[in-house]
Specification:
The chain has about 170 residues and is α/β, with parallel strands linked by helices. The protein has a single domain, classed as Protein-Tyrosine Phosphatase, Chain A, CATH 3.90.190.10. It has 5 helices and 6 strands, in the order βββαββαβααα. It has a 6-stranded mixed beta sheet with strand order 1-2-3-6-4-5. The radius of gyration is 15 Å and the shape is globular.
């Protein structure tokens, strides 16, 4: 952070004064990066990572050893279900993994880095839902700065609803 004190919980956040890492804004505790930046990422704070990569990647990217925990997810960047395709869709199981991982890690870390190939679609859909749960004052900015993947976002929202109904969403 800069020397200026920023009230991150204020309803009127000055986004231009937010900390930026590798040219990307840190929205609350969440940083979204492309894979090329994620593999170079270093942080002196407690952090966790959700690493998203597609079916074209045979070996998951190496994330810095300083990371407290990494959730690796393999699915392709598709916006609608394609039953006759070889592309990997985001699944309900993966959505539950994201929700459990974020719940388990949120109070243990200072920063959650989420990446996909470009850091624009899949990772921002995941970031937006996590932000809606734990830091709703930042969630609107994901759609303004990026293009969250609608399929990933919808599957996460559906599973988040089920998560809530069973009383599991309480990591705040």
């Amino acid at each position: 952070m800069s020397d200026e004190e920023i009230d991150l919980w204020s309803p009127e956040i000055n986004l231009w004064s937010l900390e930026k890492i590798l040219g990307r804004p840190v929205l609350g505790k969440i940083l979204v990066l492309p894979m090329s930046s994620a593999i170079q990422f270093k942080c002196d704070k407690e952090w966790a990572c959700i690493s998203i990569f597609g079916s074209e990647v045979s070996v998951p990217p190496k994330i810095d050893d300083g990371c407290k925990n990494v959730l690796r997810l393999k699915f392709d960047d598709i916006e609608f279900k394609r039953p006759d395709s070889n592309l990997l869709e985001f699944s309900d199981f993966q959505a539950i993994e994201v929700l459990n991982f974020s719940k388990d890690m949120w109070n243990q870390i200072d920063l959650m880095m989420i990446h996909c190939a470009a850091g624009i679609s899949r990772s921002t859909a995941v970031a937006k839902v996590i932000s809606e749960i734990y830091q709703p004052e930042f969630s609107q900015y994901y759609s303004q700065f990026y293009s969250p993947n609608n399929l990933v976002y919808g599957i996460l929202q559906r599973n988040r609803k089920n998560f809530k109904e069973y009383g599991e969403e309480n990591g705040r």
